[in-house]
What we know:
Helix content is about 30%, strand content about 30%. By secondary structure, it is α+β, with helices and mostly antiparallel strands. Strands 14-21-20-17-16-15-22 form a seven-stranded mixed β-sheet. A five-stranded mixed β-barrel has the order 4-5-6-8-7. The longest helix is centred in the C-terminal third of the chain and has 34 residues, at about 610-645. Residues about 1-15 have low confidence and may be disordered. Keywords: Cytoplasm, Exonuclease, Hydrolase, Nuclease, RNA-binding. InterPro entries: CSD, CSD2, NA-bd_OB-fold, RNase_B_OB_dom, RNase_II/R, RNase_II/R_CS, RNase_II/RNase_R, RNase_R.
Amino acid sequence: MSKKKKGKKPFQAPANPDGGLSKKILDIFKKQSEKSFDFNYVLDKLKIEDTKTRNKVIRLLGQLTAKGQLKHVEDKKFQFDGLEDFHTGIIDMTSRGDAYVIVEDMENDIYISNKNLNHALDGDEVKVYVFKKREKSKSEGEVVSILTRNKTDFVGVLHKKEKFGFVVVASSKMYTDIFIPNDKMHDAKDGLLVKVRILQWKDKDDSPKGEITEVLGVPGEHNTEMHAILAGYGLPEQFPPEVEEFANSIDTKIHPAEIKKRRDLRDTLTFTIDPADAKDFDDALSFKKMDNGNFEIGIHIADVAHYLQPGTILDDEAYNRATSIYLVDRVVPMLPEVLSNGACSLRPNEEKYTFSALFELTPKGEVKSEWFGRTVTYSDARFAYEEAQYIIDSEDKNIPADISLSKTSYDVDPEIVDALTTLNNLAKTMRKKRMQEGAISFDKVEVKFHLDEDNNPQGVYVKTSQDANKLIEEFMLLANRKVSEFIGKRKPPKTFVYRCHDEPKDDRLEALNTVISKFGYNINIHNKKNIASALNSLLEDVQGKKEQNLVDTLTIRTMSKAYYSTQNIGHYGLAFDYYSHFTSPIRRYPDVMAHRLLQRYLDNEPSASESEYEDKCKHSSEMEKLATNAERDSIKYMQVKYIQDQAETEFKGVISGVTDFGIFIEIIENKCEGMTRLKDISDDHYDFNEEHYAIIGRRTKKMYQLGDEVYVRVKKADLVKRTIDFELLGSVEEVAIESE
């Protein structure tokens, strides 16, 4: 990039009063900066016909050229001067109404003030002009055109006036309301939560004009809010009737003719281990002792691709959804129930079509041989994780009533007890080896809720991964890795769908080090080879401590985001050179693609189109992101719902974030996070100290720092905005002194 003078001014009219004509002229050129236009084109765009103004345009074109804002090109045409200062990127709005533009391959983001957004919204792809460059901080710029809207559908509360209305969107990243003309209200009532589509946003208008497309219900009601979360991300809920009809018409019987085409594993001991409330079982394990002392381990995956045929409306619907969505009280499946919970679910005592990865493993967990292909299997038993964990811990064949899914005690086949014990030992050996090879151990706690019949939260608990969970995880990782290796190492190369994860960026590691140093930890970020082991040591050191969830969260944020691509870069977090998603085709479309491609290459067919599958990968990654956001929003909603009636309760929390407008606090016992705004702390005026991740009182010099334990009380819980405001009672030490 060629260097420009620092301090270049944004597009503004010259000081002389020309009625903004200079800016209008520059706007024509900057919006199509790669093109050149002549004098007549400018007159036509500005709709100028009188001689006086025509002459003024001629003079201004000369002045703007002399100032270096325009340049002469061939045939008496002009072009904007400064093409190297234009960039394309994605808008990332802040809660204050300004934004940053994230540009690929640029180290620092570009700051955009609200007045220079020019109607760009969060997530939009925009063309931006940088008018101020700084060496070590973010550049500043102006949006000159919106290339692609991220979304046009929003969710908010309708406020009706006599002849119009406006919708206030709950998101902190939406800085404008949406104007609704009377004829676009479609009888929606005042105060209801609605879905609205932006129709247009003219340059002169303060707000976009929209149309109400759906009435969701009364704000704050449970079902209304769950629908609103999905609608806010443009995610589907119900299947179209024609898709349901197509799915119901599929032949789901097991046929002898099809069995003959497959490897028959129905006589091999096979079972599933899943969450207690699971309805779709898309993976099973089989176990067989071999004469040579090794073990034949099978990872059997529902053969969704057998039923989901390309070119059908069912496949189109599954691709568009790309993933199942797991809200706190419901699952929005990728596939209709007849497949997800029926034909494709590896239910006990049923024959199923499967796609399998079979491995011969030594007692030390070494892979001696592998086989991939279509199979037919029979699940002998189904276990919840709690049941499998009991067997692993006790090696007892009798499952007590308080552990069993059926709530009655029962005996497990001794063969299964032996299989589970052996598989657990193998999994531990394989996991230890992964860690030694540089894998990072993330055992992040999951927030779960005890719900009553009306989906009201009666309690919050955290779910941690135990040996039974890790057993399943380890063998799924084995199948995913080996399938991708099998294809990835072929010559000539074959198109495949990889799960990619890049190494963490240096600046993120430095930021993490700064934060954890407040708790007395440190990682050597300059030794690239040992970063993974250093992160593992950190995660192990914080186990069971008050800062664990905070450090776990910050460490995860340090990592790059995993994504799908045909361009393999390996998986940093798992320390795998090749990795794919193969084991959950009921709930993830990339797994379906992996099945199809694997079978294609097993049949010795030519490589699939790379560009076609790369597009599908990008779509899948984007839908995964939306689904994850929706799941987080539903958890946040339920946390707000749980805590809203506990206004008099004092909670102990940890300061989880510090900003120049407030501090975030996470309650230790239930992981609910809320904010105390600086203006609401009455004992002093507090200033944000970025260097120490703290706020400091001007008079008292009292400091509240990231990681400090404090006591709070709920001040306000807003179900619609999904926010919690806390009243800060003081540090743990202060409150203890006051109570003496």
